[in-house]
Amino acid sequence: MIKRKTVSKIVVYILLALFAAIFLFPIYWAVVTSFKTYREAFTQPPKLITGIDLTNYIKFFSQNDLVQLLLNSVIVALCSVLIPLVLGLFAAYALDRSTLKGKEALGMFLLASRFIPPISTLIPTYILFRKFGLYDTLTGLILLNCAMNIPYVVWMMRGFIADIPESLEESAWIDGCGRLQAFFRIVLPMLKSGLGATGVLIFVFTWNEYMFAMNLSSSNAKTLPLAMMTYMGEAGIEWNMMATAGVIILLPAVILSIFANKNLGSGMTLGAVKG
């Protein structure tokens, strides 16, 4: 019996290690390629291990206005996280706690809006941006990302709020608190993990957003992911520089996820079980 358990554990660990390797290998390959020269990137068979050469990183920093690109990305990402979190939190609370007729249909409508392929809305969005002077502006990108993120925040936060017993708020009402006071004093502190997890996820979505940023900006509102376009030309693709740009773009999201790992794990499970 003990041997069977040991064997089953070994099999599980092997499978987990295999899946981890499959998911982590593309990141490893991007890091390795970022240290290669243009010719080495096309070497056959490819080298899985290479020395550390920072030439590509120095070239990337010298060829791009990194400060401006990074500043634009940070402004767009932070605003596209904070605004949806505030608006989506109150909307989720209203949908869960109110007795409004049709609230379930409204919730499904918000969720269904995420099912629409973003590329199908690109041309109408481009026309609207041109008409209202939002093309190539940070305001336009922020509004667009907020519109995409709010339904996701409502969907996530509603599950977290549903796990908080209404009896806690009712006790606060008996003690003289109004609904808003009960929300800020009782409900909000219990939602920190959920807010953290949701914030990290929509930050990653916004930080990595490429399609709309590429088509709705030309110079003033370019974000960091668009730096990869520099290495795609008629002569071909500089895969070593593409990998370098990818690693640099990936770093902030990875660092944030590592620091927010505790909230991300507990937040994702907070709204998963009801009853």
From TrEMBL:
Any one annotated GO CC term: plasma membrane
GO biological process: transmembrane transport
Membrane topology: Multi-pass membrane protein
Protein's cellular compartments: Cell membrane
InterPro entries linked: BP-dep_ABC_trans_perm (IPR050901), MetI-like (IPR000515), MetI-like_sf (IPR035906)
Domain ABC transmembrane type-1: 70-260
Keywords, ordered alphabetically: Cell membrane, Membrane, Sugar transport, Transmembrane, Transmembrane helix, Transport
Transmembrane annotation, as ranges: 12-31, 69-95, 107-129, 141-161, 182-207, 239-260
Signal peptide interval: none
Major site of localization recorded for this protein: membrane
PANTHER family from the UniProt entry: MALTOSE TRANSPORT SYSTEM PERMEASE-RELATED, MALTOSE_MALTODEXTRIN TRANSPORT SYSTEM PERMEASE PROTEIN MALG
Protein family (similarity comment): Belongs to the binding-protein-dependent transport system permease family. MalFG subfamily.
Identification of the protein by name: Maltose/maltodextrin transport system permease protein MalG
Origin organism lineage: Bacteria, Pseudomonadati, Spirochaetota, Spirochaetia, Spirochaetales
